[in-house]
Amino acid sequence: MIRVIRSILGILFFVCLSGHAEAATTEITLDELLKNYQQYDGKIITFKGEAIGDIILRGKFCWVNVSDPAGGVIGVFGPRELAEEITCLGGYRFSGDIISVRGVFSHACGEHGGDTDIHAEKITVLEKGKALSHLVEPWKIRLSIYLPGIVLVLALIHLIIRRFR
Amino acid sequence: MILRPQLQDIKIIGLYAGRIILGLGLLLLIPLAVAWGFAEQAALFDFVISSSFCLALGYFLIIICFTHRELNWWHGVVVVSLSWLLAMFLGALPLYLSKHWLSYLDACFDAMSGFSTTGLTLVQDLDHLSYAYNMWRHLMQYIGGQGIMTVALTFLIRGAASALPIYVGEAREEKILPNVVHTARFIWLVSLVYLLMGTLALSFNAYFSGMPKLKSLLHGLWVAMASWSTGGFAPQSQSILYYHNFTFELITITLILLGSLNFSLHYTLWTGKRKEIFRNIETKSFFISILLLFSLAAFGLAISGAYPGAISLFRKGFYQVISAHTTTGFMTVYTQQFAQHWTPLSLLSVILCMAIGAGACSSAGGIKVLRVGMIMRALLQDIKRTMLPRSAVVIDKIHHIKDVLLNEKLIRQAALIMLAYIFLYFLGTLVGVYFGYPVHLAMFESVSAGANVGLSCGITQSSMPAALKLTYIFQMWAGRLEFISVFALLGTIFALVKGR
User: Fold this and answer.
1) What is the DSSP annotation of chain A?
2) Domain limits for position A141
3) Identity of the residue in A30, A115, A148 whose CB atom sits nearest the CB atom of B52
4) Of A42, A122, B124, B182, which residue is 20 to 30 A from B484 by alpha carbon distance?
5) What is the pLDDT of residue B92?
6) Is residue A108 part of a domain?
7) Within this chain, do residues A122 and A50 fall inside the same structural domain, yes or no?
8) How many domains does chain A divide into?
């Protein structure tokens, strides 16, 4: 009996402490969050995507921008320690770490001037980022040699014509 | 009887177009240098090809179209509208080669959006775009904001006789200094000074938020370019939301407000006449319009409860209203939120902000507050007349740099341009509705394109119909040039076909 009461109290304590109901444990896209914001607002969600750009510092906290597979990017706010695991951020040279963020979704966060964001409770790196290759097609290399040559010839003709005119 | 243009006419237009293309080729050397500096090999080849192609085409046109004749008024306005089209086709080359745009039409859309300082974009995966392409996107806006022809007048075209039609053809009615070339140079001086100040402020802000030195400098430069030019392109897909920074937002608001002021007003302020800002009909109309339309937007947002608390409502509402009214197009909300979370009343106020626009002879688009101010004054004057005896003579003056008599001619000119803009907005709305978009969203996007704003409620996507893309391209082009040059080019094409 005491065990049952303890368990109930424990669950109640956890619910009170977290203050947010769990909305979804499966990954959601930004589009889905914006479309059904009334369903997700203030709830704990799990958002999966690529960490892109930069980690933006705010004292002991930071922002990480996360891009879902459909291309929707959302700001994730949390303590700096949570983002320590992220080592690669997406840009021209790299695809960023694929991370999973568990946190509270705000359709219009009162703490951050109405931004749509996620306040992270946990960030997990699922897949490390990697270097992106940008191969140059052979026809572009050939054209890059011929075209400047044509420019030189035309510039020379222009100079000669100008002198004789 | 319509006269067909002679070979000499075509040659002189070709010669000046060639010079503009040559200038564009030289301009492409800047992103080429960025690609080289940051060892972005793929981008480097794309810019070598694009720059060389422009230089070759420019030289070719200059050689075959050489003539000693001077430009007349008609040639000048045709050169302007033609050069803007050529700039779009050629400026789109590196974008298309990058493969971040799905088709050449998409690349052309972004090039026109860039040069016309609109800011609507069809780019794919912007967050992985190289520095060189980002430099080109923002450079297009910076050049377009000051005016492609203003650049040409400063660096490429000599002779005051040719300069005036070119200057006027690019929707610049006011000569700040007696000489047009000096006016163009003054525009550049003001633009460079504010660009420098804006870059420093934004770069420091980004740097102290943890961005690496060089990257913060580039982001500062690009956002300053887009802000001053009231452009709206941003280096990241979240626009200004990416920075999560209130100070950053404040700096951009300052820059876009400065960029949306009339260059004549800048000149007056620079020469020490600071009181002008409180007396000028343009600034007064701008202030009243912002106040009224922001109140309307805020009321709409407040009744919908879209934002918790007054601070959030003010921060989101005010930024979007300022961005729309200055025709910039920076966003701190998502495109979907306009359609899904903003009330029709708030959306309407944003549409009105975009439609009115900002200062004439600035980098902003839209009808312009000066014209709206004049028409409103004329309306008040007419109401006043009805209350006075028939014999009473009502003389009204407006103050814009100097006291100007508000006569029939001025009012008619302003009303005609306003009517043309309304028709342009209506055209885009009609095409949008034809393709199945709801009327309010079609109107939002159409006004955004026609007034060179760049705010989007989600219609502008690569998947939208090609005819709608072409309509928006036309709207951006005609809206930026304020119609006259566009009509002149269309008239020339008609004369070539039907003339004798």
Assistant:
1) -HHHHHHHHHHHHHHHHH-S-EEEEEE--HHHHHHTHHHHTTSEEEEEEEEEEEEEEETTEEEEEEE-TTS-EEEEEEEGGGGTT----BSSSEEPPEEEEEEEEEEEETTTTTEEEEEEEEEEEEE--EEPP-PPPHHHHHHHHHHHHHHHHHHHHHHHHHHH-
2) 136-165
3) A148
4) B182
5) 97
6) yes
7) yes
8) 2
Confidence (pLDDT) at B51 = 97
Q: Are B89 and B67 in contact (CB under 8 A)?
A: no
**Residue pLDDT, tens place only, B90-141:** 999 999 999 999 999 999 999 999 999 999 999 999 999 999 999 999 999 9
Task: For residue A1, tell me if it sits in a domain.
Answer: no
Same domain for A80 and A110? yes
CA A81 to mean position of chain CA atoms: 17
Q: Rounded to a whole number, what is the distance in angstroms from the first to the last CA of chain A?
A: 108
Bridge partners of residue A66, in order along the sequence: A51, A74
Residue A1 has pLDDT above 80, yes or no: no
In this structure, are A143 and A72 located in the same domain? no
Which residues does B7 contact at the CB level (< 8 Å), separation at least 6?
none
Are the CB atoms for A117 and A98 separated by under 8 Å?
no
For chain B, say whether A125 makes contact (Cβ under 8 Å): no
The answer to whether residue A58 is domain-embedded is yes
Q: Are residue A26 and residue A63 in the same domain, yes or no?
A: yes
Q: What is the CATH number of the domain that holds A79?
A: 2.40.50.140
B301-348 tens-digit pLDDT: 999 888 888 899 999 999 999 999 999 999 999 999 988 889 999 999
Checking if the pLDDT of B406 tops 90, the result is: no
A66 and A87 inside one domain: yes
Give A148's contacts in chain B (Cβ within 8 Å). Answer: 48, 52
Q: For residue A70, is it within any domain?
A: yes
- Is residue B298 a contact partner of residue B314, using CB atoms and an 8 Å limit? yes
Look at B127 and A55 and tell me if their CB atoms are within 8 Å: no
- Tell me if B307 and A108 make a contact (CB, 8 A cut-off): yes
